[in-house]
Amino acid sequence: MDATTLASAVDLVAGPAATLSPATILDLETFVRSVVLYEHVFCMPNAEVDVISLNERLGERIVVGLPLVSATAPSL
């Protein structure tokens, strides 16, 4: 899942938003649909989303951060 969608979901899980835009509602719908259909949401690490604290708020490990592989790492 992209960082913008996940950051919007984090903001809404954290508490009520001052304003809800159509884009924010679509981001929330994307997040909820992913959780319902796939049970987990995978994302790349980013500075905007703390995966551990989000999972703590949700009560279980739903968001899974995928490790980045260095482009300079030797291939097998």
How do the helices and strands line up, and which of them pair or pack?
Blueprint: H1 3-14, H2 22-38, E1 41-43, H3 51-58, E2 63-65
Helix pairs in contact: 1-2
Fold and architecture overview:
The chain has 76 residues and is mainly alpha-helical. The protein has one domain (3-65). The protein is built from 3 helices and 2 strands. It has helices at 3-14, 22-38, 51-58, and strands at residues 41-43, 63-65. The longest helix has 17 residues, at 22-38. The model has no long low-confidence stretch (mean pLDDT 84).
Shape: elongated
Mean pLDDT: 84
Structural class: mainly alpha
Low-pLDDT stretches are none
Which key phrases capture this entry?
two-stranded parallel ribbon; mainly alpha
Short description:
With 76 residues, the chain is mainly alpha-helical.
